[in-house]
Write a structure and sequence with these properties.
five-stranded parallel beta sheet; 11% strand; 5 strands; Rossmann fold
C-alpha cells in the first residue's frame, strides 16, 4: 500500500494549522495548499510557510488566484476591515470580510491537486459555531461540494474512489479548537489570524478574526502567544 495522502488547505491561521495537525495525527501524508489571492493580509503566506515547514509536510504549494480583480470584500479591496464588533453583531449577517466564492474556488483547486496526487482526502478548517457568518463555512456547503467532487472527477466517476472533504472543526467552538490544537502540540505562536496585521505580522486585536481567536484562548484559560500591536485583554464575561 502507498502512503495515505491528504491535501490540507493552509492559511497559516489558528483553524487551518489545527486542521493540519489533525490530518497528521490521523496518519496522512500532508500536502499543504495556500493561496495568494490578492488578500490585503498577504503576510499570512509567510506564516503558512513557517507552519508547513515546522510540520514537515511533504510539499507546500502556493497558488496565485487574483480574487482582487473582482473585489467585493474588505480583504481584497480598500474597504476598511470592521473593528470592535460585538459578539451579537458578529452573529448576524454576512460581514464585509466575506470573499465571494473563496472557499468554492479554493476547494476546486484543492480537488484538482488531490486528483493529480490520487488522494481521496481534502481537509479544510471551516467552522460553523464561532465564526463570522460566512455562507461557505456551513455543513450544507461542504456536503454539496463533496457531492460535486465525486460527480466531477475521474476518480469519483471512473476509478470507483470516493473523495471526502474533512471538516474536523466544523462543530467546535474556538475554545475547543484551541484545546484540540494544544493537545496535538500546535505552536500557535507561529500562526496569524488577523485580517489587518501590521507589516511585521502583529495582529490588530480588534477585527472579527482577532476577537474570535482571543475569545477562544480566554475561554480555554490560555494566553494567546500571537503578537499583537497593543496589549489585548479579552474578558469571557
Amino acid at each position: 500500500m502507498g502512503e495515505k495522502k491528504a491535501v490540507v488547505l493552509l492559511s497559516g491561521g489558528l483553524d487551518s494549522t489545527t486542521v493540519m495537525a489533525v490530518a497528521k495525527q490521523q496518519g496522512f501524508a500532508v500536502y499543504a495548499l495556500s493561496f495568494d489571492y490578492g488578500q490585503n493580509h498577504r503576510i499570512e503566506l509567510e506564516f503558512a510557510a513557517r507552519v508547513a515547514a515546522a510540520a514537515g509536510v511533504v510539499r507546500h504549494a502556493v497558488v496565485k488566484v487574483d480574487l482582487r480583480a473582482f473585489g467585493g470584500s474588505a480583504l481584497t479591496s480598500d474597504t476598511p476591515v470592521p473593528k470592535g464588533r460585538s459578539a451579537e453583531d458578529m452573529g448576524h449577517g454576512v460581514p464585509v470580510t466575506y470573499v465571494p466564492a473563496r472557499n468554492t474556488v479554493f476547494l476546486s483547486l484543492a480537488l484538482a491537486w488531490a486528483e493529480t496526487l490520487e488522494a481521496t482526502d481534502i481537509f479544510i478548517g471551516v467552522n460553523a459555531l464561532d465564526y463570522s457568518g460566512y455562507p461557505d463555512c456551513r455543513p450544507e456547503f461542504i456536503e454539496a461540494f463533496e457531492r460535486l467532487a465525486n460527480l466531477a472527477t475521474k476518480m469519483g466517476t471512473e476509478d470507483g474512489k470516493r473523495l471526502t472533504i474533512h471538516t474536523p472543526l466544523i462543530a467546535l467552538t474556538k475554545r475547543q479548537i484551541v484545546e484540540l490544537g494544544l493537545s496535538l502540540g500546535v505552536d500557535y505562536g507561529m500562526t496569524i489570524t488577523c485580517y489587518d496585521p501590521s507589516a511585521t505580522g502583529a495582529a490588530c486585536g480588534a477585527c472579527d478574526a482577532c476577537l474570535l481567536r482571543l475569545k477562544g484562548f480566554a475561554e480555554a484559560g490560555v494566553v494567546d502567544p500571537a503578537t499583537y500591536r497593543h496589549f489585548v485583554r479579552f474578558s469571557t464575561r
